Amino acid sequence: KYHEEMAKRKKLHNIVQETKGNIRVFCRCRPLSKVETSSGFKCVVDFDGANDGDIGIMNGGTTKKTFKFDRVYTPKDDQAEVYADASPLVTSVLDGYNVCIFAYGQTGTGKTFTMEGTERNRGVNYRTLEELFKIAEERKDTVTYNISVSVLEVYNEQIRDLLATSPSSKKLEIKQAGEGSHHVPGIVEAKVEDINEVWDVLQTGSNSRAVGSNNVNEHSSRSHCMLCIMVRAKNLINGDCTRSKLWLVDLAGSERLAKTDAQGDRLKEAQNINRSLSALGDVISALASRSSHIPYRNSKLTHLLQDSLGGDSKALMFVQISPSDNDASETLSSLNFASRVRGIELGPAKKQVDTAELQKFKQMLERSKQEVKLKD
Ligand code: ADP
Ligand code: MG
């Protein structure tokens, strides 16, 4: 059993580490809730092939549709297990790669549970920072790391800084500061020194998400919550300097508009959400067809993710699903979308060299060599 598990892990590690690879897609199904059980809803998801990445869904009682992913989690798989699989990708940000991880799916399927988690059952966001600090500590004699985080929300195509202590009077916009370097001038970049500071920062972000909205759940299902971890690394042995970032994104609910009776402001929100989710779909299609123009700028979401989605970077999508027959049509539509995503081949990932910093660092090394010579 142990060897089987290790072989499985190794296989997965190779899939995840392959530099020339697809966008990885992990599928996670939440348990049937108490309410669903007591209302008589049934599980329509088949996990028999879960170990091989296969998942089936009963479509209208008789026919079964199956899908293949890089990993399938049953409702019993816990947070630690899920994180262990994402970990190799996460840690490659320390080696200078841009990475993007996002959770996609209908509202109520566990996107926030997977990414944020709860204090007792922490999710990918916290575990990521925990591991980054652990590795940074292990490497401290050879590499100096500088880690900071920003937490943003995109709601109605507007960016809100969830770490800002007072609301900004100016509209936050995305600017390009050089090739592969988009940023939002004026947002808080909280420098985090160790893991003890992280939970508070993440909670601040999470708490301000609902501020000003009268329905917390509705607000979170209609906005994208985006955590950006920025890493600067200086290798003290070979002089390498990199500057990379990792986006961890809890997307708005993917449910189709028809199911919600949207009117007025509500309709505008829904259209904007659909706009950015469909813009994400368009970016993914363009990447898949190796189009020369990738339409990142059609939404705030894709514009923000531009440096970390496609091209030189590594990406992972969690497709979150409900097991209930009541949600089967949304589940099918999510799985179809996720299958298309999985088919995309990205080029080889590339390290994000920090040229300016590298130059300074090389000069400094040169100077200290000269000084040593002078002393001799
Ligand atoms: P979403 O963010 O997609 O709307 P949530 O993360 O809020 O969904 O999850 C909906 C509910 O289901 C929450 O009460 C959450 O705790 C629960 N849940 C989701 N995934 C799991 C899981 N894998 N195991 C146990 N409970 C889960
Ligand atoms: Mg949520």
TrEMBL record:
This is Predicted protein. ATP binds at G105, Q106, T107, G108, T109, G110, K111, T112. It comes from Hordeum vulgare subsp. vulgare (Domesticated barley). It comes from the Eukaryota. Residues 22-344 form the Kinesin motor domain. Belongs to the TRAFAC class myosin-kinesin ATPase superfamily. Kinesin family. KIN-14 subfamily.
